[in-house]
Amino acid sequence: MKRNFLLAISFLLMSVLAFGQQTVTGVVTSAEDGSTLPGVSVVVKGTVMGTTTNIDGEYSIVVPDGYNTLIFSFVGMETKEVEIGNKAVVNVSLEPGVLGLEEIVVTAIGIEREKKALGYSVEEVGGEDLSNTRQVNVVDALQGKVAGVRINRASGDPGASSFIEIRGSASLTRNNQPLFVIDGVPIDNSGNTGNNVAGVAESNRAIDINPDDIESLTVLKGGAATALYGIRAANGAIIITTKSGRNTGGKIEVNFRSSVRVEQANKLPPLQNKFAQGTQAFADLLAGFGLPGTSLGYPDQSWYNAVSWGPALDTLVYTKDPNYIPANFFPGYGNGSSTMEEYIAKWDPNGRLIGIKDAERLGITTTGMPAQAYDPFELLQTGVSSNNYLSISAGNEKSNFFLSYGNNDNQGIVPNARFTRNTAKLAANTVLTEKLRVGGMINYSNTVGNRIQKGSNISGLMLGLMRTPPTFDNSYGYQFPDNSQRSYRGGGGYDNPYWIVNNIRYKDVTNRLIGNINAEYNANEWLSFFYRMGYDGWFKDTKSFFEKNSNSFPDGRLEKSGEYNIDLNSDIFATINKDLNDDMSLRIRVGQNLYQRTYRSTSAIAFGLNQFNFPNMSNTSDARGFESNFRKRTSAWYGDFGFEYQNMLYLNLTGRYEKSTTLPEVNNGFFYPSASASFVFTELPALANNDFLSFGKFRISYAQIANDAAAYATQNYYFQPSPGDGWTDGLTYPLLGVNAYTLGNVIGNRTLRPENQNSFEVGANLIFLNNKLGVDVTYFYNTSTDLLLSVPVAASSGFSANYVNAGEMFTRGFEIILNATVINTKDLRWDISANWSNPYSEVTKLAEGVENVFLSGFTEPQVRAVVGFPYRTLFGLDWARDDQGRILIDDDPNNAIMDGFPFSSPELTPLGNVNPDWIAGITNTITYKGFSLSALIDIKKGGLMWNGTKGALYFFGAHKDTETRGESKVWEGVYGHIDADGDVASYETPFDPSVENKGPGAVNTTEVVVDENWYWWEGEGSGFTGPSSPYVEKAGWVRLRTITLSYQFNPSFLDNSPFRSVELYVTGFNLWLNTPYTGVDPETSLVGSNNGLGIDYFNNPGTKGYTFGLNIGF
Amino acid sequence: MRNIILTLSATALLFASCQWIDPEINVNPDNPTDVSLDLLLPGIEGQVGYYIGGFDVAAVPNIWTQQILGQDRQASAINGYIYRESDPNNLWGNMYAGVMMDLKNFIEKAEDPDAPSRNVAGVGKVLMALCLGTLTDLFGDIPYSEALQGQDNLQPAYDSQESIYDEIFRLLTDAIADLGSTDPFENTYSIENDYIYGGNAELWAKAAHTLMARYNMHLINVKTVDYDAVIAHVDAGIADISEDMQQPFDASPSAQNPMYQYLTQRSGYITDNNTFVGMMMDDTLTYGVADPRASVNVVDVSGYWTSRASPVALAQYTEALFIKAQAYAHKNAFADARTTLKLAVATSMAKYGVGDAGWTAAFETEVDNTADADLMKLIIEQKYLHMFCQLEAFTDYRLYGYPELTPVVGNQIPRRYPYPTSENLYNSDNYVSVSIFDRVWWDQ
C-alpha cells in the first residue's frame, strides 16, 4: 500500500516536471531613486517557484509553460504583478510603500495579508528589535513595545516567568495569556499558574524560544484577529516567524552574535541598622530582677530573639571576657548559653555583645570595639551572563536552509541561581515541482534552571535574609560541623540565606522540540492547498532538594519528577484568490484543524533523607510515587471569506465550528463568527495624492470567540487524601502502609458550556506629511459571558467548590500608537515611536451567592474578582473607621486593643485596583552615520501592590522605618471602639467606660509612644498583627527600560575584510527607575505568571545592568 | 489521479475528526469515580485524627484554657484572644468537605440494601457522631440536616445545637445496635483497613458508649441528665487503656503526629503555660513531689501527645472514669465519686506510664480530705491535667469553670469559635455573626 502510494507520488512529480519552461531575467530598481534593490522576492504567480534578487538587484527565474505573471514584493515597497508575455527580460521598478502599510503581515493560521487590508489592529515587532533588548525571554523582549500589551516579570531571578496579557483580561480564572504560535504551529507557554506563594520562580515555557532566531513577531490583539485560531487564542496571539534561508545564489552566509551582561539588584527594601537583636520587653523583665537598664541576654539564640527590638547599637560593645556568660548573671536565663570560646567560634569572632554600662557594673572586660551592623545584602553578587549565537544559511532558487546554534548562560545576583539555554534550529524549504513546495523546521532547546526558594517560605531567600538582625552576620557560616544550621535564631525559625543558596537546591532541565513539516500545492493561479503538521514536545526533569536541618523540612525532602507535554497540531486548508474584475477580488479559505495535547508526569517525593549532602532517591527511607496524566483534543472546521474593492474597501468574514473533548458531549460543539471591514478613504479620488494626509483608514470589527472548559470537570472523582490544616505539611497517603481515597472537593458539572467572548473594535490609522507622522487609534470593548469559574461554596455543602458557567466581565480601552520622524537627513535620523493604552477590566457578574473569586494571596490580603470592581482588586483588612471614613482610635481600656492606637476592622474590604490606569512605552531612536542611540522609556501609571515584606519587617523591627521606635505620636482619627452590638461607639470621656455613646467621639489628642509594643508584642502596627491596608502601596513606575548605543561599521570599510557586517553595542537596562513603591522593583509577582498579580511577600529582587555585544556577518 | 488523492485525503480527515473527539478522553485517568469502603475508611480516620488532634482543635481552645502558651505570630494573637473568622476556615472546610462528606457516603454505601454491612455502618456513625460533637462544641449551631448535599443545597440551614445533640445520640444509639448485629446477611463484608480498632465491632460499640457518656454530660446545664444512664454507658464503654479510641501516627515524616508537626514546623509559636505547669508543680497540688505527669504533658516534642509518633486520642478509658466520677458527684454519691476519681487518676498515671507512690498516696489523702462541695473542682482539675491537648478540657472549663483562670487580657475568656469566613461569604443566607465570648446553647 505504502509502496503504491510512493509510486503514485513519483509519477505525479514526473508528470509535472515534464512540462516545458522558459527562463526570465531582469533587474529590480526603486522608483524613488533608481537604485537597484537586492533581496526582492520574485514569484511565478500560481506556482511555488520563486527567487530573490542578488546584491545588484538582478534575478533569474524559470517560468513553466502556462504561467504568465511574476509577483515582485519587498519590505517597504508596494507589491507589483507583471505580465511576462513572451519577454525574456523583465525589468521592474517598485514604488515605495506608505510606512509599511503595503507590508505583508502574518495573521491567523499563517495567512499573509497586506496590513492596510486588515479590519483590526495588529502590531509587528522585528526580530532585531527583540534580540537587541538582549532579554532571555521573548516575552520580556516585548516590554513597552506594543500597545495594549502588559508584561510583568515575576522577579529578577534568572529564568523567572513573565506574565503577558493583551487588552486586559477576558477570563476570570482560566488562562488570560495569549497563544504563542511559531511558524504556524501553536506552542505551549505554560508556567506556574497556581497560587504558588512559595517555592521557586519557575519559567514560562516561551523562554525556550531563542529571540535571536526570530525573524518577526506579530501581535494579534482582538477577537477578529484571532477568531480563526479558535479557543486557544481567546486572549490574543503572538505569531512568531523564525528565520529561514533565502536565495543567496548558493553563497553561504554566516552570522555571529556575542554578548556579555552584568547585573545587580536594582532596588532593595530598606533595613534598619541601629538596633540589635533582642527586645525591650526582655530588658524590662531583667529590670524586674534588679538589673535595671541591662542589655544582658543579648544576643543569644533564645526563643525571644526572633526580632530586632534590642538595645541601640551605640550602647553596646564586644567582649571576649571568658567570665561573661549571661547565664551566670541571670540565673533563670540559661537557654543558648555557651562558653565565650564556643560563642566566638560559633556565633561572632568579635565576641559577645554587652551593654557598655553593664560591663562597667559587672566588671567585664570589653574589647572596646563598638557594636557593628552587618549588611545582610552582602550575599547578593554581580550576575554575569553570556549569550552566543551562530547561524549559517544558504539557498538557491529551488532550495534553501537555515541552521543556527545559540547558547545563553545567566548567572543571577543570588549565588547558585543560574539559567542556561542551548538552542539549535534547522529550517529548510525546497521546490519539488513548479506546483509543490515542501518545507520543514525543527527547533531544539535545552534549558536548565537552578532556582532559589522565594516568598512565603521559611526557606525563602529574602525572608530569612531580611529578618536577620543587623548584629548577626549570616556570612560567618551557615553550617556547623555536625551539619546543623547556623542562623540567627539558633538554627530554628528561618533558614540562613547562605544555607538556602547552598543546601536547598532546585534544578529543572527541559528538552524541547518544536517543529513542523508543511507542503504547499498551487493548483493554478487562483487555487492552492496547504498542509502543515506541527509538533511541540517538551520533556522536563525536575529535582527539588531540601537538605536535612532545613527549617521547612527538618528531616530533608527530595522530589524528583519527569514530565512531558506534547502538542500536536494539524492544519489543512484550501485557498481561492481570484480577481473578479479590475476593481474587485475575492479570497476564500476553507480549512480544518485538529489539535491534541498530552501531558504525563511521574514523580517521587521522599520525606526524610539519610546521608547528608547526597540528594538521591536511594538515600531516602520514605518515598512515594505519583503520576499525572492529561489529554485533550479539539477539532475544528473554519472558513474565511475576504472581499476587496479598488484597494479601498476590504471586508472579511470568518466562521469556525469547533468541538472540544473537555466539554460534556451534549455541549461540545460550538460555532463562532467574526466580521471586519476597513475603508482606506485616502483612495477616494478627492483625497488621493494629497501631501498632508498621505494615508487614512477606518476599520471596524466584531467577533465572537469561545473558550472550552478545564478537563475532567464534568464528574466527581476520588483523590488520595492529603490531610493538612494549613499550619503543617500534614499527612501523605498511603498512611501507615494503607492507602485511601476521599471524594474530591469540586462538584462535577455535566452541564458545562463554553465560555463566550464578544469582541468589538474600531480604529483609524492616519499618516501625515509623507510618512513623517503616523497615528493609530483603536477603541475596543470586549465582553465575556458564561465565564467558567470554580465557585467557592460553603463547605457545609460537602464540597468546597462548584465549577460553573457564571461569570461576566468586560474590558475596554483605547490604544494609541504614534510614530514620528523628527529629523531625516542623509546622515542623521531621529525617530520616535510611542504607544499608550488603558485596558480596564471589570467583573459584572459572578455566580449567585458568590461575592468574590480568589485569584491569589493569603488569608489576608487577597487579590480577588468581585462584581462591580476591577478584575484583580486587592481585598484586605483596613483600620476600623467611622461612617465618614475617619480612623477610630481605641478609647476602651477594657479590651485587648492598645489604648490610643487604631485597630483593625473585622472584615476584608477593597483596598484598590492592582491593574495600572494606563501603560505606555516611548522609544527614541537617533542614528548618525553608523551610530545609533535608542532608549525605551516604560511607564506604568497606577496599580497597587501589597508590600507584605514591609508589613512583616515592621513586626521584626528590621525595617528602616522602625528606627523611629520610641517616638511619641498622636494618631490621626477619632476616639471610638466597637461596642457589644458590633457598632461604632465611644465613651463620653475617652478611656473612662462609665458613659458609652453610639458613634465616634472627639478627634484624638492622646499622645502615645510607638515602640515594639505597637509593632510586635501587643499592637497592630505590623502586617502580622494588624491590617494589610497600611502596606498597600502605589506600584506604578517610570523607568528607562533599555538604552542602547550601537555602532555599525560602514560596509565599504569592510570591503577588504572577510566580514559582511560588524556591529558593536552596549545596552543598559533598568538603569533608572522612578517609583513610589518602597519594596523591591514593583515589576514583581509572588505567584509568577498567575492571574493574581499585585502581591509582594519577600519576592526576590529585580535587576539592572549592562550588556556589551558584538554582531558579525560573514 | 490528483482528484482521487484529494478526495481520499479529505474523506480520511473527515473520518478521523469524527473519532477524534472521543468522550472517553475526558475521563480522568488519575482518579477513580468510585472506591470501596475499605479505601474510604483509612482516609476518614487519618483526617479525623489529624484535624481533631491538630492545632485548630487540640491547641487553640487549650491556649484559652491555659494548658498552652501562644507566644509567637498567630499563636500569640490567639493567646491575646484575637481569633478571627478566617482562623477556623481550614478546620470547617476539612471537617465538612473532607471528613463528613466521606462519612455520609461511607454510611450510605454500608447501608446499601444489596450489600449491607451494619457493623461497618456503625463505625461510620460513631465517627460521624464524634465529628458532629467536635464541631458543635466549638461552633454551637451548625448545618447538618441540610448539609452534605452538594449541588442540591449549596446554602444549608443551621440546626440548633440541641437538635445536633439529638442527632449525635441517635447516631450513637443506631451505631450500638448496628455494631451488635451478628447476622451474616446484614454483614455481607467486613473491613480490615481500620487504624483505630482493626475492624473490631465490639470495641467500636464500646467507643460508642463512652461517647454517649461524654456527650450526655455536656448537657448538665440545659437538661436533666440521667446520671445513672451515663454511668451505665461508661461501664459498657471503653474498659481499659488498651482499648482507647486513638488514631495512630508514625515517626516517618509523612505520617507524623499533627501537634509534633506544628511544634517542629511552626517552631516557637507555642510553649508551656505557667498555669498548667504551675498546677502540676504547685505545693497545694503536688503533695510533696511534682505531679508525675509534669514530665509528659509538656509543649515539647518529647511530650506524650506531642512526639513524632504520638497517637491522637478520640475517646479514652481515663476520660470515661472522670466522667463517671462527675456523674457520681452530680448524684451526690460522693463516696463512689471519690473511689472513681482515685481510679481515674491511677489510670491516668498508667496511661502516661508515670507514677509516684508518694504522690499518689498524698493525692488520695487529698481526695479523702476534700469536702463534698469541693469534690467536683478536684475532679475537673484532675481531668484538666489528664486531658492535655483535648477539646474536652475546654468544654469542662465552660461547663464547670474549673480550673479557675485569670484572663490574659480583658476580663473574659473565649467560649466558642466564630463561624468561618467561608460561611459568611458562601452561606450568607444562614450565617450569623457571633463573638468568641458568646456562649453556645449548653454553656448556660
Q: Please outline the major beta sheet of chain B.
A: 2 strands, antiparallel
The major beta sheet of chain A can be summarized as:
22 strands, antiparallel, barrel
Radius of gyration of chain A: 33 Å
Assign a percent range to the helix content of chain B.
Answer: 40-55%
Helix segment tally of chain B: 18
List keywords for this structure.
heterodimer; A: 1114 residues; mainly beta; 22-stranded antiparallel barrel; 5-stranded mixed beta sheet; 12 helices; 57 strands; 8% helix; 45% strand; globular; B: 444 residues; mainly alpha; two-stranded antiparallel sheet; two-stranded antiparallel ribbon; 6 strands
Question: Your description of this structure?
Answer:
The complex is a heterodimer of chains A (1114) and B (444). With 1114 residues, chain A is mainly β. In chain A, the strands form twelve sheets. Chain A has a 22-stranded antiparallel β-barrel. In chain B, strands 1-5 form a two-stranded antiparallel ribbon. Chain B has a two-stranded antiparallel ribbon with strand order 2-3. Chain B is mainly α and 444 residues long. Helix content of chain B is 54%, strand content 4%. The interface between A and B is large, with 95 and 104 residues.
